[in-house]
Each structure stands twice: as C-alpha cells, then as structure tokens.
Amino acid sequence: MTRIYLDYAATTPTHPEVVKEMLPYFTDAFGNPSTIYSYGQEARAAVEEARGRVARLLGAAAEEVCFTSGGTESDNFALQGVAFANEDRGNHIITSEIEHHAVLETCKFLEKKGFKVTYLPVDDYGLVDPADVKKAITGKTLLVSIMHANNELGTIQPLAEIGKITRAAGIYFHTDAVQTVGHIPLDVQNLGVDLLSLSAHKLYGPKGVGALYIRKGTKIASFLHGGGQERGRRASTENVPGIVGLGKAAELAGHELQSECPRLTALRDKLIADLRERIDHTTLNGHPTKRLPNNVNVSIDFVEGESILLNLDLEGICASTGSACSSGSLEPSHVLLAAGCSHERARGSLRFTMGRSTTAAELSKVLEVLPPIVARIRAISPLLKKKG
Predict the structure, then answer these.
(1) Does domain 16-253 sit in CATH 3.90.550.10?
(2) What is the pLDDT of residues 324-349, one digit of tens each?
(3) CB 295 within 8 A of CB 268
(4) How far is CA 318 from the centre of its chain?
(5) What is the pTM of this model?
(6) Cα separation, 79 vs 94, whole angstroms
(7) Which CATH architecture has domain 4-11+257-387?
(8) How far is CA 33 from CA 54, 77, 199, 206, 241, in A?
(9) What does the angle CA 249 – CA 254 – CA 255 come to, to the nearest 5 degrees?
(10) What count of other Cβ atoms lies within 10 Å of the Cβ of residue 277?
(11) Distance CA 178, CA 72 (A)
C-alpha cells in the first residue's frame, strides 16, 4: 500500500541534502567547537556557517541567532529569560488563548512565580485583535507573546501591527514562528519582533534542534547554566550535526519559498473546496485566506475525528485532528474551543497539512476514500441520532 503523508505540521522528513551535509559531523569532523585545535575549529566554522544561514532566512544578524534543542526550549527560553531578567521593570505578560502548550505552560509556570498573565481571546477565525493587545498593556507589562501562525488552524496573526504597538510601548515582543519559518516569507525587522522561536524538524531539518532569534540589546537571562556557549546565553556543548542540518534546511527553504508557497496554496484551496462540496456539514476552521499555504483544517459534523483518522490510516493516509503535542488527549482542542467551536464540532476536526512531496494525485485519493468513511461512521454515530 502506498502511504500518503499529510501531517507536515507535526513533523517533516529530513531533506536528503540535509542528511548528506550532517553526516561528516558524526564521524570525521566530530570535534567539540569549544576546543582550539583543528578538529574543534572545523566544527566551530560549521556552526557559524549554519548560524549565518538561519539569520539570512530571518532577515537577522548572525549574532542574534541562538541555537537550542527545538521550539519548546526556544519558547521557554524567551518567556522565562525575558521575565526573570526584567522583573525590575514589571511582572505582566500578554499572550493569547490559542498559543502552543510550550508558551501556555510556561506562562502558567511564571504565574506560580508571581507574574501576571493576560490571555487574549481570538475571533472565530482564530485572529488576535491588535486593539486588544494595546488595551491589555499596563505600566507593568514587560512582554507580549503571540504566535505567528497557529499550528492547528493555520491562521496567520497580524504580527506587524502588534509589533508597532509593542515598540511604541517599549515592551518586548516574542513570537512562536515554528509553523511559519521556511514556509512563508518573513523578516524579523518587518514583523517588529524582539524574539522568535523556530524548530528544524518543521522545515525538513533534524529533530532535537532549533533556534531563538534574540534582537540585539534584548535583556534576557540565560536559560541553561554551565559553560559559555552561545555567547553565554545557553550552556551545553553544541549539537554540531543538528545545527549543521538546521542551517542547510534554512538555506534550502529560502531557495524554495517562491515556488512552494503558490503551489501549496493552490492545492490547499482546491482541497478545501472539494471537501466542502463532497461531504455535507463540513466547516472550514481558521481564516479562509490569512492562513498557512499548506494547512487545511475542517470540522465534519456528526463524527469523531479520531475515528476518521483510524479509518484513513487503514487506507495508508496519515493526517491529524490537531497538534501532535495534544493528540493523545481526549479533550477537544483548546484552539478550536477558543475560536468558537462547540465541543462536538471540535471533536470532529480533521487537519491535513501538506509539504514539498504532496501531489494533486494524493489529494484526489483522499477525496476518493474520505466521503465513504464519513458516511459509514455517520451511519452508526450517536451524534447524528442525537441530531435527528
């Protein structure tokens, strides 16, 4: 059976060119970048080349890129680092109700440490209103953290507008851009952010490595304590193969952006239209146009999303009902609930996220097998009987 992978928002396959570039740093070029002899300096040069590649993708300076173990660490580093380094300025943080758990759980942790957090609502599309951000700012506010695009809905937030507000107020602005870096054009200067989180495995790089963009002059406390790596911001011997892989993945993403964005957008829009046409009582979640090029999230009434996933898997099709980090939960998505979905509709959500290998033929196969699956489940669904 040919397998069709449509969960690229959860993770991506490592690009063959990325793997090829990483391999020597496991064996021949295995040196510790902190050592002064040739093995170490060879590794150091590779790390710095990767730093430059990531910086170019972001529109940043190389010294503003700090390597981490991934998006979750970057989010923790940004929030905790800014909070603890700026306690003399205030104790208030602003975020949204639909953030990734890496941000929400960090905010809850900071609340236990005495910080105050405002969780902003979103509209039915999952959009944060910049006016709400402005209204929530107080004399004690030191940080705003709003994700660039939601991992479930695919909705892209108005970061540039929010950035103007935070800049005028003199407070730091962080964004979790794990879903957007390498997938849509972005520039940290245009967005007005001071900190930005990214993860390699979301853009065809290896798992276990990421980065945090830290604008020059940002006051931030170290997250890991020990050696002086990463300009004293993150102790620990660098993951050289992973960093090299992230750098190559960033370079490749930059080259492919102009062709991939329109290709995936066309596939996305056709899949949305076909799903709504072929399966009645199907609702698009998220904004119809202000969304990631590869993201399709729909709610199909009178079915459970988990049941659809199991049946799709039997047909060799991999999709999702939400974010990978919460897929083991029986609770409806906090994102969909915040965007106004009922519990029943949220439980019937289905997310297809496409990637560089996705073809129109694969999506045609999905449209061939999905309607009969929905019909079978609805025929025995207590939700439909309840409706009737």
Answers:
(1) no
(2) 454 455 678 899 999 999 888 889 99
(3) yes
(4) 19
(5) 0.95
(6) 11
(7) Alpha-Beta Complex (3.90)
(8) 18, 22, 21, 19, 11
(9) 100
(10) 10
(11) 9
